């Protein structure tokens, strides 16, 4: 019974998190890798802290911490023609970032599983330190 309750709670959390940002499509890690090898016009945005970014990030990612959206308005405007693939460590910060940019008319995709899933799958990382 306890397992059933735990399963239901996890399912409910996942469902609610998807409803909160239902207007942002998801992209899998495999799809992102394929896009990196093609001519698809997209940019990868890592919204974690500069320290987290330096410790390891996806190749080609641009670091724009989620709490610095207003300070990065000029940079973000240069990225508006592209689809932005957004990720953070686990999803919370990325969703906040996506909600703001969606309202500003940006074309967005959310990396499924965020950085934790990318790292767990042992996909390539770039380290800055």
UniProtKB/TrEMBL annotation:
Task: List UniProt keywords, sorted A-Z.
Answer: Signal
Kindly list the organism's lineage: Bacteria, Pseudomonadati, Pseudomonadota, Gammaproteobacteria, Alteromonadales
- The chain positions of domain Rhodanese read 38-127
Q: Which domain of life is it from?
A: Bacteria
Show the InterPro entries listed in the entry.
GlpE_sulfurtransferase, Rhodanese-like_dom, Rhodanese-like_dom_sf
Claim: Signal is one of the keywords in the record: yes
Q: Which CDD domains match?
A: RHOD
Record's protein name: Rhodanese domain-containing protein
Q: Which residues form the signal peptide?
A: 1-22
């Amino acid at each position: 019974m306890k397992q059933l309750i735990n399963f239901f709670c996890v399912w409910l959390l996942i469902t609610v998190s998807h409803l909160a940002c239902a207007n942002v499509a998801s992209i899998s890690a495999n799809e992102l890798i394929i896009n990196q090898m093609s001519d698809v016009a997209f940019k990868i945005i890592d919204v974690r802290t500069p320290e987290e970014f330096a410790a390891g990030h996806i190749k080609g990612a641009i670091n724009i911490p989620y709490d610095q959206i207003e300070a990065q308005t000029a940079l973000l405007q240069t990225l508006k023609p592209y689809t932005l693939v957004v990720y953070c460590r686990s999803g919370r910060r990325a969703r906040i970032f996506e909600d703001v940019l969606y309202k500003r008319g940006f074309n967005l995709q959310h990396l499924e599983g965020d950085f934790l899933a990318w790292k767990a799958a042992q996909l390539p990382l770039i380290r800055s330190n």
